[in-house]
Amino acid sequence: MAPSFNDGDSLFNFVVKDGNGVKGLVDMGLTEVPGRYIQPPHHRINKQQVAGSLEKVTIDLSELDGPNHEQVVKSIVHASETLGFFQVVNHGVPLELLESLKVAAHEFFGQPAEKKAAYLKGVSPSPLVRYGTSFVPEIEKALEWKDYISMTFTNDADALDFWPNGCKEVALEYVKTSSQMVQRLLQALIGNLGVKLEDSRFQELTGFNMVNMNFYPPCPNPDLTVGVGRHSDAGMLTVLLQDGIGGLYVKQGENTSPDDQNEVWIEIPPTHGALVINVGDSLQILSNGRYKSAEHRVRTTDIESRVSVPIFNAPLPKAKIGPFPEVVTRDGVARYKEVVYEEYLKNYFEKSLDGKKSLDFASTV
């Protein structure tokens, strides 16, 4: 029986607990957005605040090995110090694999609900895999128009044993082929700070990888909803594959609040063969605020389904993150305290997405 969309509990059970997701609503022929998905005005994407698109910050990573090495590093550093976002091409991840990832994502979310619900929290055969919807729907006042499957990488064998059939091979290959790129980017960024890390410490700060497949069904009232609310990522670097539809926005500047009508957002346009890189909170903390974790969000569309596939590179759970001593010595002040990453992450997931307020947990000012 179809749920009553005016009944919040019925809707929540249908979408969240039963695993039908937003796609389940759309498949029922939904013609208007249920009230539970309508965002307050200051969280909607105001097109008047969008200032063009980020087409010029595209970095050719093949030049890291050539005579333009220093210039490429400068470009990576500059983007990380300002917007916290850039795109990379010639990154070493096969373009055929990127196309296969998009197909696999559509195929996973195109399955019957019961197939996907087998990976819901509490019933999933492994804590390495979780299917869900929105961010933390149990505490959100307004839900996000998004379903996802999340796969944590520990080793190849676990991935092949527990990740969902149909997408595990391509998702695993994506993690493995992007790993060297992520390591090189982080080595360049950390080295630019004048910091030299032992291999064990570098591994501690960069040893966690999780890949998501995100699905954004068409929305009948896209101006009232968001695909993902305004937030920064918790980890070190995020690698994102977009499809050709677009909808990713990053905020320019940090000194504005959600109700500030003067804040400016820039669209990150889909570029065939490119991957989007963004700085996370952990790298901002370690750099003592020099590198900026990017506040970003995703709009919905009424045209067609959109997919994206991010890899979240992050510290190991027990790793301690705090400003590098060399940077604090140079800056004369520590802007963040040292925290254990899993405690930072626990705080991150205890609240609805709300810009960069997650950083308050580690801030000293």
From TrEMBL:
GO terms for molecular function: 2-oxoglutarate-dependent dioxygenase activity; metal ion binding. Its cofactor is L-ascorbate. The keyword ATP-binding does not apply. InterPro entries: DIOX_N (IPR026992), IPNS-like_FE2OG_OXY (IPR044861), IPNS-like_sf (IPR027443), Oxoglu/Fe-dep_dioxygenase_dom (IPR005123). Pathway: Phenylpropanoid metabolism. It is an enzyme of class 1 (oxidoreductase). Its EC number is 1.14.11.61. GO terms for biological process: coumarin biosynthetic process; response to molecule of fungal origin. Residues 207-315 form the Fe2OG dioxygenase domain. Keywords: Dioxygenase, Iron, Metal-binding, Oxidoreductase. It catalyses: (E)-feruloyl-CoA + 2-oxoglutarate + O2 = (E)-6-hydroxyferuloyl-CoA + succinate + CO2. The keyword Mitochondrion does not apply. Belongs to the iron/ascorbate-dependent oxidoreductase family. This is feruloyl-CoA 6-hydroxylase.
